[in-house]
Write a structure and sequence with these properties.
The structure is a single chain. With 441 residues, this protein is an alpha/beta fold. It folds into two domains: 37-70 and 343-440, Aspartate Aminotransferase, domain 1; 73-341, 3-Layer(aba) Sandwich (Aspartate Aminotransferase, domain 2), CATH 3.40.640.10. It contains 15 helices and 17 strands. A seven-stranded mixed β-sheet has the order 4-12-11-10-7-5-6, sandwiched between helices. The protein has a four-stranded mixed β-sheet with strand order 1-2-3-15. It has a four-stranded antiparallel β-sheet with strand order 13-14-17-16, covered by helices on one side. Helix 5 (97-109) runs parallel beside helix 12. It is globular, with a radius of gyration of 22 Å. The two termini are 39 Å apart. The structure holds pyridoxal-5'-phosphate. Keywords: Aminotransferase, Pyridoxal phosphate, Transferase. GO terms for molecular function: transaminase activity. Belongs to the class-III pyridoxal-phosphate-dependent aminotransferase family. Pfam families: Aminotran_3.
Length: 441
């Protein structure tokens, strides 16, 4: 093709448009414009595209490349395991060393009574698995009607039929209309209603009200992210998670923490729930468990759930070909070793302060920047027409998109959360190895 005068970049773009249907992308725009960036290399918090331009990866790609790009130790761990035993099944009682060692390690890091892990290949599978484990647990406890799952607005739990149904962002339901009846959305979130304040005007949208309406006998679990990512960087206010956990306990409902983004240091604690001393019954992890170097997820479960499940004397008909993938688990082990060795969680806490300084500067110098927020290195802000009067931009103005576009021209990749009309949120979540100088830049 080069001899015919077509550059490699143009060739790739044409092939991409023709053969590759992209996830969470506007197909019509993609067919017109082609790929925005074709990534080719990465180093630390920076990535290079195929033209040789370098960008700061301000969102760790999909909040997952936590140790940054080009981490050779992770690559070496993968190579070592791949050349020894790349893959081994965990079905039918088979096992492998990296899967066992990683299970022990993750459980040792996890809060409270979380005592075993069920492996998956990613976040959606983890949440689907958590839902199934919750239902099965109640089934084994003689309560087979406890099947429904409550999730909240602006949540993102994945894109499979199960996890996608729990996702509380409407845009993810217009695709193939996944919104079945066993997952109920409590419309409001992060309010005082959960601690029992029925005078709160949002009461009818609360989880508490939803439990009253549906009946706790029909509900298996409540699922929640400690900090909502894709839905717009919403940090649970102090006391909220604890109130929801207590509410669940009072009603014999399991509490699932979706730590797919928050887990493994992102919030300045090893797990997001630790910011509020909450121990969930089930905890979904993925992304940061390998820093994105290999596809892996898992669900941690309480001792009570584990002990109930291990009494089951028939086949537990659930699992994925890549559950307990040796190479992925070897990468996960190395990833956790580096997180501890290099005091990554501590760095995240320090960088939160640097980010907040930057946000203060933005607020002082840009009248549209408001509601800046950060917990560790998951952070963001809103853009509003009039922040003092709390007036959003007119829906015709895609302010967050415009800002992200300008940043992109300046070689900084950010993310917007503007699935809902009128919302203009910028998300910033750089790799956890980010330095003070990086943040200043
Ligand atoms: N849960 C949360 C909080 C997420 O942010 C994501 C993905 O962004 C998922 C679940 C789904 O994970 P995956 O895309 O690996 O299936």
């Amino acid at each position: 093709n080069l001899s015919q005068g077509i550059s490699k970049v143009d060739e790739l773009k044409e092939l991409d448009k023709k053969y590759y249907l992209h996830p969470t992308t506007v197909p019509k725009a993609f067919i017109e414009n082609g790929p925005k960036i074709i990534f080719s290399e990465g180093n630390g918090i920076r990535v290079k595209d195929i033209n040789g331009d370098t960008y700061i990866d301000g969102v760790s790609m999909l909040w997952n490349v936590n140790l940054g790009h080009g981490q050779k130790e992770l690559a070496d761990a993968a190579r070592k395991q791949m050349t020894k035993l790349a893959y081994g099944s965990s079905f039918y009682g088979y096992s492998n060393e990296p899967a066992v060692r990683l299970a022990e390690k993750v459980v040792s890091l996890a809060p409270g009574h979380l005592s075993a892990i069920y492996y998956t290949s990613g976040g959606s599978e983890s949440n689907d698995t958590a839902f199934k484990l919750a239902r099965f647990y109640w089934h084994l406890k003689g309560k087979p009607n406890k099947k429904k799952i409550i999730s909240i607005s602006n949540s993102y739990h994945g894109a499979t039929i199960g996890a996608g149904t729990a996702t509380g962002i409407d845009a993810f339901h217009s695709f193939a209309g996944s919104k079945d009846s066993d997952v109920i959305h409590a419309k409001a979130h992060l309010t005082n209603c959960e601690s029992g304040d029925k005078s709160d005007p949002n009461y009818e949208k609360s989880i508490r009200y939803t439990i009253e309406k549906e009946g706790s006998d029909a509900i298996a679990a409540v699922i929640m992210e400690p900090v909502q990512g894709a839905g717009g960087i919403h940090i649970a206010p102090d006391g909220y998670l604890k109130a929801v956990k207590n509410l669940c306990e009072e009603n014999n409902i399991l509490f699932i923490a979706d730590e797919v983004i928050c887990g493994f240091g992102r919030t300045g604690k090893m797990f997001g729930v630790e910011n509020w001393d909450v121990v969930p019954d089930l905890m979904s992890v993925a992304k940061g468990i390998t820093s994105g170097y290999s596809q892996l997820g898992g669900v941690l479960m309480s001792e009570e759930i584990r002990n109930t499940l291990v009494e089951y004397d028939q086949i537990l008909g659930h699992g994925f070909t890549y559950s307990g993938h040796p190479t992925a688990c070897a990468v996960g082990l190395k990833n956790l070793e580096i997180i501890e060795r290099d005091h990554i969680v501590e760095n995240v806490k320090n960088m939160e302060q640097e980010l907040k300084k930057g946000f203060k500067y933005l607020e002082e110098n840009h009248v549209n920047v408001t509601k800046t927020r950060a917990l560790g290195l998951i952070s963001g802000f809103d853009l509003q027409q009039d922040r003092d009067a709390d007036i959003p931009f007119d829906q015709s103005i895609r302010a967050a998109q415009e800002v992200a576009e300008e940043c992109y021209k300046r070689k900084l990749i950010l993310r917007t959360a503007d699935f809902e009309e009128g919302k203009n949120i910028i998300a910033i979540a750089p790799p956890l190895i980010t330095t003070k100088e990086d943040i200043e830049e």
